[in-house]
């Protein structure tokens, strides 16, 4: 029995050291990656969740939106305006073009190459931010590359936008020691909240979702049965306890179990399973796209749609007696084999956070 206990301890220690070793690289080597999954090939007509369906799932209004939703991505998407026009026409949304001032592209360099993976990410982000908050403006900030330095430069520009209602970052990577010193970058002059995808590789915290100045968005799987909605944790949803970031006051006040004084991720969740993915048009073809990439821009759109979407308010609302008016509590599903930290449960869990939205006002 003693020998078995020793083996178990050694295995646990080995897991911890492996996690630290994986995350012990430095910011200079950081590469942001979009957590995105495309289900199948291109089609001639839409496949996947439609705007009206997802608004019904999350009790969102059919129209609205104010200010500017700032989307931070990388590389150039040469067809984004044309794709957005096709998307808007298909789903009877207001046109959103550069000529009208609704859509603005801001490349961070005069020489930016294209990248097919990031271009699909851009289409998902822009089209679905517009779908959720169709009267808000959209600013697409394009980093020169996916390096940490270039992405952070794009974040700094986004933070300087005076009419920003929200800022979306559908990318992430493993944590690193210097991340704590970079938290100040996620503060907007307008007070706009930052959102980041928690990742699509299952259990484990990623940056920038792990920053206490960012709202981390995990993933769920949605099933529609007539007017009924079934939602459980998605197996790919990133989440866990940060290696470096201390627990912020809004989480300490909520008393998250087993956090050990460190930042818990994610904060909230949203549909991410490719099997219940979103209809996205890219270069004239339609795809079904999933991943926690979908949640960050749509939560950003919810912030532009309603009011009060800030970290403190989210935890306060979840702890209130009216919690069911704000969140769908995700209580089933898992994202790994790490027992407690990989299982969805009531109140807060390390897979779906506080749950999925049931309103645009927090």
Provide a quick synopsis of the model.
Helix content is 26%, strand content 24%.
Distinctive features:
362 residues; alpha/beta; 8-stranded mixed beta sheet; 17 strands; 26% helix; 24% strand; globular
Structural notes for this entry:
There is one protein chain. With 362 residues, the chain is an alpha/beta fold. Helices cover 26% and strands 24% of the residues. It has 8 helices and 17 strands. The strands form 5 sheets. Strands 2, 3, 4, 5, 7, 9, 10 and 13 form an 8-stranded mixed sheet that branches. The longest helix is centred in the first third of the chain and has 21 residues, at 2-22. It is globular. The relative contact order is 0.17.
Chart the SSEs and their pairings.
Layout: H1 2-22, E1 37-43, H2 51-57, E2 68-74, H3 80-90, E3 103-107, H4 116-132, E4 137-143, H5 148-159, E5 164-169, E6 173-174, E7 194-197, E8 206-207, E9 214-225, E10 228-233, E11 240-246, H6 249-254, E12 262-265, E13 268-271, E14 278-282, E15 285-290, H7 295-305, H8 311-319, E16 327-328, E17 356-357
Parallel strand pairs: 2-4, 2-5, 3-4, 5-7, 7-9, 9-13
Antiparallel strand pairs: 1-15, 6-8, 9-10, 11-12, 14-15, 16-17
Q: Could you tell me how far the N terminus lies from the C terminus, measured between alpha carbons in angstroms? A: 52 Å
For the biggest sheet, the summary is: 8 strands, mixed
Rounded to an integer in angstroms, the radius of gyration calculated over CA atoms is 19 Å
Please report the total strand number as a whole number. Answer: 17
Principal-axes shape call: globular
Structural class by sheet pairing and helices: alpha/beta
Number of helices: 8
Unreliably modeled segments: 1-21
In round numbers, the mean pLDDT is: 93
Order of helices and strands: HEHEHEHEHEEEEEEEHEEEEHHEE
Helical content stands at 25-40%
Strand content is 15-25%
């Amino acid at each position: 029995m003693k020998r078995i206990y020793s083996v178990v301890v050694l295995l646990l220690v080995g897991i911890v050291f492996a996690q630290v070793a994986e995350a012990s690289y430095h910011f200079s080597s950081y590469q942001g990656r979009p957590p995105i999954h495309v289900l199948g090939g291109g089609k001639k007509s839409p496949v996947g969740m439609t705007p009206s369906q997802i608004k019904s799932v999350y009790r969102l209004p059919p129209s609205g939106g104010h200010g500017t939703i700032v989307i931070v991505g990388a590389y150039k998407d040469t067809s984004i305006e044309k794709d957005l026009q096709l998307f808007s026409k298909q789903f009877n949304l207001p046109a959103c073009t550069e000529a009208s001032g609704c859509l603005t592209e801001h490349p961070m360099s005069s020489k930016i190459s294209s990248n097919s993976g990031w271009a699909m990410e851009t289409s998902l982000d822009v089209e679905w931010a517009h779908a959720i908050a169709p009267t808000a403006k959209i600013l697409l900030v394009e980093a020169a590359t996916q390096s940490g330095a270039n992405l952070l430069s794009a974040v700094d520009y986004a933070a300087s936008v005076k009419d920003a209602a929200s800022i979306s970052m559908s990318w992430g990577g493993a944590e690193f020691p210097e991340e704590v010193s970079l938290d100040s970058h996620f503060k907007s002059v307008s007070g706009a909240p930052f959102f980041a995808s928690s990742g699509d590789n299952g259990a484990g915290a990623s940056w920038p979702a792990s920053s206490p100045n960012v709202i981390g968005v995990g993933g769920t799987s949605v099933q529609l049965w007539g007017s009924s909605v079934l939602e459980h944790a998605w197996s790919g949803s990133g989440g866990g306890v940060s290696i470096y970031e201390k627990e912020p006051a809004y989480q300490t006040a909520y008393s998250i179990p087993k956090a050990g004084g460190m930042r818990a991720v994610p904060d909230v969740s949203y549909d991410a399973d490719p099997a219940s993915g979103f209809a996205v048009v890219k270069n004239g073809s339609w795809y079904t796209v999933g991943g926690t990439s979908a949640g960050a821009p749509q939560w950003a759109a919810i912030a532009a749609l309603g009011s009060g979407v800030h970290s403190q308010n989210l935890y306060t609302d979840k702890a209130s007696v009216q919690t069911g008016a704000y969140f769908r509590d995700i209580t089933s599903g898992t994202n790994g084999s790490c027992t407690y930290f990989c299982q969805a449960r009531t109140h807060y869990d390390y897979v779906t956070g506080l749950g999925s939205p049931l309103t645009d006002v927090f």
